[in-house]
Every structure is written in C-alpha cells, then in structure tokens.
Write a structure and sequence with these properties.
The protein is of the alpha+beta class. It has eight helices and 17 strands.
Length: 320
C-alpha cells in the first residue's frame, strides 16, 4: 500500500552527506539488513542465528518471533545494527496454518461455536517452556478460518497478535471439544513478510558464498533487505538534514525539524524517522497525531532507539 503524506515543503537532499539506501555497498547492506528465512522443522531459531553469524561472519543477528524446533515457516532475522529494530519487529502480527487433532468426535456446529469463542480478545497463560513469565495476559485472535476437516483432524488458518501461543490456543479450544493438541504448525506471515519473501537458509548461504568467490552481488541483494524496510511496518516521518545529527544524539524530534509526515499516526504509535534520502535515523514513539506535527513548535516524537551513527550528517544544532 502506498503511503500518503502531509507535506510542509517539497525538499530534496542536495547535500553530500549520507547515502541513499539503494546505493549502499554489500558490506553496508549486511551491516544493516533483514533476511526472511523459511525455517525448516528441526533446528531452533537460535541455532539458525548462530549458523548465519558463523558462516556469513555476522557479528550479531536476532530473530523476530521464536518458532518451536518442530515448527516451520517465516522467520525474520535482523543482521548486525538492524537488531536495534527488534522493538518493532517483535510487535508484528502473525499468520499460521495449524493442524489440530481433536481427541473425540465432534460436530461441525460445535467446532464453529468454539472458533467464535476464541476469536477476538482472549486470555492466555504462556506454556511452561516459554521464555516469558507465566502470567495471564490478553492477546487478540483476528480470525480462525477452517480450511478442511478430516475425521478428527482440523486444518486452520489463524491470524493473531504477536505473542499468541498457537499450541496453547489449540489446547484451550480442545477443552470445549473433548481435548485437542497441535499436530503441525507453519507460520505463513510475519508483519508484511510472507512465504513469498522467504528463502531457504541454504539459498542465503549460497548467495553469500557466490558473492565472496565471484564478486557478484545480485543474488545476495535479492535476499537481504535494507533495514529501512522496517518503515513499511510503521508510520514514517521525514526530517530536514539540519535536524539529523540532533536525533543521532538522542534528542526528541521537534515539529520544526519535520518536512513531511505520513497520515494516520496516533500518539503512542511506533514511527520511523528518516532523512530526505530515505535513510533511517531513529525509531520512536509519536507524542501527537500526524495532523499536529506540521503545526507550531512542540515535541512530536520521543526517540527510543538511534539507528544512524553520529556525525553522518554535520552538527547544525546548539546545546542549551
């Protein structure tokens, strides 16, 4: 979907500072990039992180949304500096194809009744093996579509809020059906990334080795997304070149530094702050709605994580 902006002034960055994301070197791309792996059943997500670090000489990488070893599907991995984007990546909604095995015979009418019961806001206690505290919490299930029923096996398409445990969801549904457990699970979407974006781990490794051996970057560039891809998940605010270094030093974003702002941003939303060249400067939380960001002089965004290195753009601000 094309973004719509409120514009204060149509400007272009004519300075020599910074660099358009599309012309970064492959080394720069690997230092601030995202890859989408089609995780196979078997390895843990941490093992996949470790293999990428070791084989591709990546100092640090991290996955957004853990999949159990037996679960397959879309796994978004941030490389090096892109790990700073985790607060946004971890909030991405998810979609799954799940196979539920019910322990007793059931009617389709009863199944649909249970599906309706577990659509919308639900309460969950994370399973014992989860990495979070086992406290009841609320999550939202956007929809559960029944794709196929074969005896006691039910194939479902589930769309839900990040942090929803599908295995627990199925077990809880089973309490109303005479018992049930998750037979198979595949994640088909994480935020804007779907199966069509995912590649096998071997494809990533092959593209990296081909670049190292021949210098051909094409295949690796097709797989690794610039970190700025995160802007597709959030509202975007474009700022003046003169405001960049202040944000790089952790300052909040004032309305006076904004050139244009995406429509529809509300207070509390995560936003991406970018340069006129499209480089990601920082991510933060909006304090006022889009419509107010081009009016007056006030603080528009609280900077949460600085992405761009200090000194990339010259200092054009004064400390008070």
């Amino acid at each position: 979907m094309k973004k719509e902006f409120l514009v204060r002034a149509y400007e272009a960055s004519l300075s020599e500072f910074g660099k358009y994301p599309g012309v970064r070197s492959i080394e720069e791309l690997l230092n601030f990039g995202l890859v989408v792996i089609d995780k196979p059943p078997g390895p843990t997500c941490n093992q996949i992180d470790s293999w990428i670090e070791k084989i591709m000489k990546i100092k640090k990488c991290s996955h957004a949304g853990t999949l159990d070893p037996r679960v397959s599907g879309v796994l978004v991995i941030a490389l090096n500096d892109a790990v700073k984007l985790m607060p946004i990546l971890l909030k991405n909604d998810k979609e799954y194809i799940a196979l539920m095995h019910v322990h007793k015979d059931f009617s389709e009418e009863k199944l649909m009744e249970v599906v309706r019961k577990f659509t919308g806001k639900i309460r969950q206690i994370p399973p014992k093996k989860s990495a979070v505290a086992r406290k009841e919490r609320e999550r939202e299930v956007y929809f559960i579509k029944i794709l196929e029923i074969d005896g006691r096996d039910v194939l479902m398409h589930i769309s839900c809020e990040a942090g929803t445990y599908i295995r627990k969801l199925i077990a809880d549904m089973g309490k109303y059906l005479g018992g049930a457990h998750m037979q198979e699970l595949r994640r088909i979407k994480s935020g804007i990334f779907s199966e069509s974006n995912a590649v096998l781990l071997q494809d990533l490794i092959d593209a990296y080795k081909w670049w190292k051996e021949t210098g051909e970057e094409k295949y690796l560039r097709e797989i690794v997304y610039p970190g700025e891809k995160i802007c597709d998940f959030t509202g975007t605010i474009v700022i003046k070149d003169s405001a960049v270094d202040a944000i790089c030093n952790g300052a909040p974003l004032s309305t006076s530094g904004i050139v244009m702002v995406e429509k529809g941003i509300s207070p509390g939303d995560w936003v991406c702050i970018t340069t006129l060249k499209g480089e990601l400067v920082a991510i933060g939380k909006a304090l006022i709605p889009s419509e107010d960001m081009l009016r007056g002089k006030r603080i528009a965004v609280k900077t949460e994580r600085v992405i761009m290195k200090r000194g990339t753009y010259p200092r054009m601000w004064k400390r008070k």
